[in-house]
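Complex 301.
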Amino acid sequence: MRIVLLGAPGSGKGTQAQRMVERYGIPQISTGDLLRAEVAKGTPLGVQAKAAMDAGQLVPDELVLAMIRNRLAQPDARKGFILDGFPRNLSQAEALDRMLEEMGSPLDVALLIDVDFEVLMQRLTGRRTCESCGRVYNIYTNPPKFDERCDACGGALRQRADDNEETISNRLRVYEAQTAPLIDYYRNQGRLRTVQGVGEIEDIFRAITAILDPIAEAEKEAAEAPPAAEAAPADAGAAAREETAAPEAAPAKKKPAARKKPTARKKAASKKKAAAKKKATAKKKPAAKKKAAARKKARRR
Ligand SMILES: [Zn+2]
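Predicted structure with zinc ion bound:
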């Protein structure tokens, strides 16, 4: 399952990403971490990136993409990834798509954790950090028991210098200006899925799994399917005949994902189910096709 994770600073996407890693067994690839690691290790890419940063320039997209490509080649990313921190703008998104298509592993979902500007402001300006142990609080959403004192060690709580209102407001506006076109881009592709990042962490995660579980399931199914023979074109007549012979509903996930209008969908469903069932038993669908169908199906919701 290949995911781009989108969310403003303070959206809670880090917390949600951790849970996604646990549930789906795919790595979170943060381009910030990736960059730091390459620089620290002094790899050729890291050296080039450091030169750019030392010169006060942004690290060129091609460098970041090359790092991502290397990272994706590692065994733990074979089942997919959660990409975090990249792309940040439209041209990066296009470049990423080109690279992934080239690698034969296009994105499944761009998952946006959406939070209102005002809520983000409160979350970010309310942040306080313990000077002694580094524990993080929020005076609005997660206050210490005693004012300005750490519950764990009694240390003094401080606001980071760059957590003031003006800096944060600027940071958020820049983020919004850059990502708005990105969000449109993924929406136009039909890949954008949005969850509201407000409320309990558990509830937000449940909304995420409602989107991702069907994709993960379909992938698992496709992986378990025996090597696929070339499927012959479906015979609509045979499918219709089979409908009477086998009225038992096939499992919902076997349903092919043709795009239908809601009214037409219901009518077509039983016919399709029968066709799908026949296909499933008679001639296994190629794995890739199945996966694409599941992806379409997931997007439609
Ligand atoms: Zn402390």
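Confidence is low (pLDDT under 50) at residues 236-285.
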